Model the fold of this input.
Amino acid sequence: MTCFVQGNSGGVSHSSSFQAWGVNSLIEKGALAIIALFGMSLLSNLQAQTYTWNTGTTSGNWSATGDWTPTPGTGGPGSGTTADLNNVSANTIVTYDSGASGLLGTLNITQTSAFINELMLNNNLNVTNAITLGASGGGTSELYIDPTTTPTANYDSTLTTSGITVASGGILELGAITTASFSGVSEVVGNVTMTTGGAVNVERFSGGGSSAADIITGTFAMSGGTLNLGSAATGATGADNRLAIDGNFTATGGTIVDAADGSLYLYGHTNVITGMAYNTAIGITLFISSNTNSIESLETDTILGAVGFRADTDSGDTTIFEVREDSDTFNNETPATVGKITFQESGAGGTEELELVTNLAETAGAAMPGVNGTASGATTFIIDTTTNANSYTLDLSQASGGFTPAANGTAGTATWSFQGNGTIKAPYFSFNSTNLAETVGSSGNAVTLQATGGNATPNSFGTTTTFDPSSTFLYSGSAAAATPATLTSSNALGILKVENGWLNINQASLNTQGSITVSSGGLILHGTTASNSFTGNTLTTTSSSALSFALSGGGTLDLKLGTSSNDNDAILGNGGTFSLTGGTINLITTGSSLIYTDTYDILQGFAASGNAITGDTIDINGAALSGYTASISEAGVLSFSAVPEPGTLSLLVGGFALLLVGGFFRGRRVEVSASENLLS
Done:
């Protein structure tokens, strides 16, 4: 740069001296820049230095500087450098020991022959760049996080990286140890990806005491390979092993296997297990620990093991767990299938909601949904069968026993709420637990409880169970008439339906708030009375609206009749209508014989008109009437009329014929007589 400054004093010019200063300044700055660039290049070369484990066949500690080429500084390869664990010609373990710095730029583990090349972490390691584990030629590249030191306090052995890919021939091994008081677990801070031929092994706990979970704090995506929960470690005695995944878990291929009571704890908002082999001994827990309203989903087309829904939330917070079979099509035909379903609330008491985005079924023999929690406050558990205007079924019909909602462990109280317009199926329902309330349906939610059990299965709803008028109790099981399923309810049901099998109303009076329909199978009203000591039982409505009753098709209504008029079971209609269109009304007598001159109001309080009575069969004690016909008036009154004996009927017919013939001839004589008079 040249700078010119001119002054008027003495007419002297200073331009030459300033020009010289500018040239010198330029030279100095250039030199400094060159020195700086050289220094930066030198520093970069130092930081990017690559160190190679040089023994080839000998195991050793990372911090042993003599085992590296070139020789690194104290602690072995460190921050910003590259460490190469190249092909070995014998199984080799390099131990990342306590003398190492804990920092590294790049880690390469390569193996192209049939030996194991392993890096075992006994110290925390932070690797700047992503790691790929893979091998060829029958070899193995393994990264083993191994907190083997006996812990004196809870601690993690941690690998931190921007990502780790476990490819064919690669193994990521997560070890763990416990004592009676403390645990040491493996932790990967970063995302994990596994492809075909790779393996992630979660070891059984060595030592005694209670277990804790190995942890992946990022996402875990597997399109192939094997996730092995419970691989055997040296000295492993624990049977419980857990893997917690903080990010989303996506498993779309490969295999998840279990060797010793393995568990997956999934904390991510979106979790997918589809198109893969899965060991149903593995339990899955969807876990939300924040004290805020949250949603966590599980999508699966794979038969899973036990699934738990756990939240550690406070009162007023709502946690929603969604289960879906196919996130794209919302398939309403093929159910997602799991083992036992468990709810767990361990906070101060909040709301947990299981929201169906598909049909969901428990596997055959699984235990019924339960609760395993220690919440200190009141907890609400919701099962919602409708999402985005689509209604689904929670199918517990193949599970063991009946559905008995439970309180929240040994602490607190619980309310169960069954919502939506879908269906919950179980062999039977028993809603009678202490510290518990149940609501079936709500305004605009016509949920159905469908009992599918066989002979003598008991359905019981206690004083704390309330039914919305639009809700339905449906029996569709296989119980025989001699050993029917039973139904009792302290409060009024919504709608009552029988579509197959026999259901006995096992109480003197059962109330409904909606219609009663028997389209197949049978409904028995007299389950609480002895055969010769009888007061009629009733089935009625407590609502202000009219009750409609329909008996059709293969349906049977089983009623008992006493030995006096109007001593009988009855359905009370509250001004509604009834429809008898093809079913069977079976009348059970309670005395030695029925008094056929009596009448019985079996359908009471129905409208005087508008009732349909067509084609019904009326039996006595399961057999056709003999000597009498039975009829039901439009007012619902049952009456009998005698059928004449065949001989009597023949005499009547013959007498009537003679009368007709006699009348005919008398008519002829009159006509003839008149004619004769006219001729005379």
Notes: Residues 452 and 477 are 4 Å apart (CA to CA). Helices lie at 15-47, 646-679. The first strand starts at residue 50 and ends at 53.
